[in-house]
Amino acid sequence: MDITRLLIMNHIRSLTGGGVVVANLFSKPKSLGNSSSLTKAGTDQGLLELVSMAHNVDEVILGMGSLPSKSKVAQARLAKLMSMYQEDKVADKLKMLVNPDTGKPSHPLSLQGSSWKLVPVQVETKD
To answer: Which domain of life is it from (predicted)?
Structure first.
């Protein structure tokens, strides 16, 4: 188990005492965060599984930090996932992990030892 999964599980258990399912925006291991490796790291099946899991949980916590703001590939994949959550009518379960001091999206590793703040995610509806 990697440190990110361990931090998430420990934090959620300390808050609620319940279980947790951990998943990644990109389903295949990647060594670099460049466009080429990210394009190869994502599958449509991985996104379908994330949406499917959302039906079986109380909350979906997005904790990805700044990658979507730095990578067009990550930004497009996140937008596709948000659209899929909206279409499947589970977008109301979405919460973003943010740095409590800055309000910016955070990865669990960047908040190691700090408090977590979860804010509801507003998914834009298609008109």
So the answer is: Bacteria
Q: What is the DSSP string of 23-89?
A: --SS-S--S--SHHHHHHH--HHHHHHHHHHHTTSS-EEE--TTHHHH-HHHHHHHHHHHHHHHHTT
For the stretch 21-33, pLDDT in tens is: 777 777 655 555 5
Q: Within 10 A of 123 (CB to CB), how many other CB atoms are there?
A: 17
What's the pTM?
Answer: 0.80
pLDDT digits (tens, 9 = 90+) for 15-59: 765 666 777 777 655 555 566 667 666 778 888 988 999 998 888
